[in-house]
Write a structure and sequence with these properties.
With 146 residues, the protein is α+β, with helices and mostly antiparallel strands. 32% of the residues lie in helices and 33% in strands. The chain has a 7-stranded mixed β-sheet, with helices on both faces. The protein is globular. The two termini are 27 Å apart.
Length: 146
């Protein structure tokens, strides 16, 4: 499996990518809305995919460009159900933290659905702590010192 930075010219199975994104509880995008979301991430942030040939099995999008606050923001992470528990999410998360540190970020923040206990455990294992409510009452805001 290859971990690559997503770009518009990347040879990728877009139907499989759409199905992967739809596994995320916090994002309900498809078609043109999904493409607009991905374009925003690759224009202003970073988007990485784990590929098996042209089939995406995991995805991570983040922003590490706020030079004023030095806070990076994890926008999305999803690993296909067939690969969960095999360290793919950990690889993506570690790469994101490394890139954010290289860009001078001192903290990482993310929103996580309060009911998503597995995700919360993953982030806590990676030294993220709940610091309050997130973007709505359905989310926690978590933070990690980089």
């Amino acid at each position: 499996m290859d971990l690559v930075r997503y770009s518009k010219d990347l040879q990728i199975d877009l139907v499989a990518l759409e199905k992967l994104v739809q596994q995320m509880p916090s994002i309900t995008l498809a078609g043109d809305e999904l493409q607009a979301y991905l374009n925003k991430l690759i224009t202003y942030g970073d988007l990485f995919v784990a590929l098996d040939g042209v089939t995406p099995n995991a995805l991570l999008g983040f922003y590490a460009n706020n030079v004023d606050t030095k806070v990076a923001y994890l926008s999305c992470i999803v690993v296909s159900s067939s690969l969960r528990g095999q360290g793919v999410g950990q690889q993506l998360f570690s790469k994101m933290c490394m890139i954010a540190r290289e860009r001078g970020m001192t903290h990482l923040q993310l929103d996580v659905v309060k009911e998503n206990k597995n995700a919360i455990m993953f982030y806590e294992k990676n030294h993220c702590a709940i610091i309050g409510n997130g973007r709505t009452d359905e989310y926690w805001l978590m933070e990690k010192e980089l």
